[in-house]
Amino acid sequence: MRWSRCLIALAALAAAAACAGRALAAGPEALVASEHAFAQDCATTSVRDGFLKWLAPTGVVFSPGPVNARKFYEARQPSPTRLAWQPAVAVMSAEGDLGWTTGPWQWRKDSTVVAPQATGSFVTLWKRQSDQSYRAVLDIGVSHAPMPEAPLEARTLVAVGGNRGSLAQRKALWKADADYCRLATREGLAAALGAAAAPGVRWLRDGAQPVIGHDAARDSAATAHPQGRMMSLAQFVSDTGDLGYTYGTLVEGAAAAPDSSYFLHIWERTPGQPWALVLELFSPVPKPTK
To answer: What topology does CATH give the domain 2-156?
Structure first.
């Protein structure tokens, strides 16, 4: 009975987000509602049209590098492919201006296919717009084998104080990411994770199920990405300085035949503490065909 009531409540929130087009609250429930409404629109119209409805004007997707998401989807034709997903984690900044979600996705070539033909994990960054709605400012994912369903993790961060959206906060996030990239380049990705990752960090890469936890992520990185050259390309921070995200490049291997990936970092900060990495995702650049 309790679970049924929860589903009814989430459905109502999703419907309200889709119809009213405004923020429901400065909490993670608004992200959950928006994510469900986003997925529902893709199911009832098309993936293209659903994304165009929920993407922010300056939203970013990766193809394989960062591109304007609206232009990317506007250039595509609607197709019968089916993409379904649901959030497993929803985190909101203290002010409610920035948040992130992650969870499993499934792909089918059309509605006649019952079993998913591809599965993986997505990550979406959400930003509150001037009309108080939430729109996706970054969307990225990786492919991997399906995972068992997990209970929803939802939380709101604590403001760190200081000036809202100050230049100092943005510089602090840039420095944290730049320091991480330098350490990863110099001593390896495992060393960087060991120094900066939060205890519950999530580590995602293509072809492998998500790894959760500081030590598990560090050990996985030591095997999967032992050495490489990392460079941060862009940084964004919440008004209250408690949540930020960055993305950039990782280049591995010899200069003659490098393996390249784009990375996404999500950072959180609590009062009196430095920025801590809570999610790292690597999206590989396809190798050129001969």
So the answer is: Nuclear Transport Factor 2; Chain: A, (3.10.450)
